[in-house]
Amino acid sequence: TDDQPGVVPRACKRLFAQLDEMKHVKTFVKCSFIEIYCETIRDLLNNGVKGAKIGNLRIRQDAEKGIYIEDLSEKFVNSSEEILQLIRDGMVQRSTASTLLNDVSSRSHAVLCLTVAKILEDGSETNSKLYLVDLAGSENVGKSMVQGISLTEAQMINKSLSSLGNVIY
């Protein structure tokens, strides 16, 4: 809510407040937003764009770019409000389902990436990235009584959270 903003609104607001303080630096901010659903990557900002690839995006690696998601859309933003509107638009595209434990259960992980490009007075450029992640919650299959596709989703969510636990110390 406006009187009790969460982590994402506060982070976005703080980012633009800090950028406004940099008087001698030209900055640009780009935003991308994906979901990972049953091991498939979907672009949450590219809904309805003619010719755009929305689902089953691929992770690639390049000597210059590093690791990136092929065909992922990025939107330039000028304020925290623009980022929050993109998030609202993207959230409509997220995969959800009803279970016994939650009427609108998120069935995917979502990753918001903010890329900040700074061009210094000497012409040099630096790029920074901030990743904000919303993980789908682990699900007790017995209590939620899910079956069929929802059971497969729950198993994939639990598998991915278990994998994440293996790489975080």
Mean pLDDT: 80
Cα-atom radius of gyration: 18 Å
Question: How far is it from the N-terminal to the C-terminal residue, by CA?
Answer: 33 Å
> Helix/strand/pairing class, anyone?
alpha+beta
For this entry, what is the oligomeric state of its chains? single chain
- Rough outline: globular
Strand content: 25-35%
Largest sheet: 5 strands, antiparallel
Order of helices and strands: HEEEEEHEEEEHH
Into which percent range does the helicity of residues fall?
25-40%
Low-confidence stretches are none
- Number of alpha- plus pi-helical segments: 4
The number of distinct β-strands equals 9
Compact summary:
The protein has helices spanning 7-21, 80-91, 141-144, 149-167, and strands spanning 26-37, 40-43, 59-62, 66-69, 75-77, 96-97, 105-106, 109-119, 125-134.
